[in-house]
Amino acid sequence: MNIDGIKVVDATLRDGGLVNDFFFDDDFVRALYKANIEAGVDYMEFGYRASKKQFSTDDFGKWKFTSDEDVLKVIGEKDPRMKLSIMVDVGRTDYLEDIAPRSQSPIDLFRVATYIETIPEAIEMINHISSLGYETTCNIMAISKCTDEQIADALYKLANTSVSAVYIVDSYGALYPKQARKLTRLYHKILSPAGKEVGMHAHNNQQCAFANTLEAKDLGAKWLDGTAFGMGRGAGNCHSEALLAYLNGKKYHLDPLLKLVEEWMIPMKDSGIEWGYNTSYMLTGLTNQHPRTAIAATKTKDMNYTEQFKFLSYQ
């Protein structure tokens, strides 16, 4: 298997933080960091750097607002075997004020998250953050809601920036492998001539997150996201342990993540923190809808799936 140039990105703290409002214990974060290093993971995402002017620090844990100091407090001396990442959302971060030059930070990569209609603002962020010395990628969210023409226009614009890669982000878990292949080919056609790479961030509403990630990888996507035990918003994400098992060999190693799942992820889920596939999430994926209705149904244990499907079908 050719894994040259593959970058596995662990997004547990960031996507998983959407499940528990980013209230992670420092001991867990430290254990996740160490497990990722031993597993050979290339980047670990330390949550968001959201604006404290827009979001209350009383309502969210520190990984919603991740500071360099928070990261260093947990990891101590940075291990050079793995790079560190933070996500910044267009319109939800004070990036001009809150990001120091890379020479003063333990962070290597900022991932700029945007919807298709805010690509110009994303490009401004990418250019500014790149000028500070960081690597950058762009995550185009809710890609299943975009037309091919919209996607192509965005990709041509991003190809002219300093961005390293652009992600296919299946926010609603609506994509099937056939669609993942089509999108990966489209991304490559436009980005590759400019020296840019393709990434895949998949959600598991229709239990296709792992399959879609492999399809993208086999068609040349180099940036592959996963989360420990699939922890992420709603139905969750591609399981890091499944992805590393597929890539297992000289570079990637499964055992450290299996130990993390045993010692941390299972107890976390048993404590009442809820994520992962169920029929309500399948229905929002099937109808290409935001999972908010499924999140609400899951919280109230509403299993009237016929009515849910009827409601979603008319949205």
What would your notes on this structure say?
With 315 residues, the protein is of the alpha/beta class. It folds into two domains: 264 residues, Aldolase class I (TIM Barrel, Alpha-Beta Barrel), CATH 3.20.20; 35 residues, no CATH class. It has an eight-stranded parallel beta barrel, surrounded by four helices. Helix 9 links the parallel strand 7 and strand 8. The protein is globular.
Quickly give the CATH architecture of the largest domain. Answer: Alpha-Beta Barrel
- Biggest sheet statistics: 8 strands, parallel, barrel
> What is the H-and-E element order?
EHHHEHEHEHEHEHEHEHHHHH
Helix content: 40-55%
CATH structural fold name of the largest domain: TIM Barrel
Backbone CA Rg: 18 Å
Head-to-tail CA distance between termini: 43 Å
CATH superfamily of the largest domain: Aldolase class I
Mean pLDDT across all amino acids: 97
Outline the fold blueprint:
Blueprint: E1 7-10, H1 12-15, H2 17-20, H3 26-39, E2 43-48, H4 68-75, E3 83-89, H5 95-98, E4 109-114, H6 119-131, E5 135-140, H7 148-159, E6 165-170, H8 177-191, E7 197-202, H9 209-218, E8 223-226, H10 240-247, H11 255-270, H12 279-286, H13 292-299, H14 305-313
Parallel strand pairs: 1-2, 1-8, 2-3, 3-4, 4-5, 5-6, 6-7, 7-8
Helix pairs in contact: 3-11, 7-8, 8-9, 12-13, 12-14
What's this model, at a glance?
The protein is an alpha/beta fold and 315 residues long. 42% of the residues lie in helices and 14% in strands. It has an eight-stranded parallel β-barrel, surrounded by four helices.
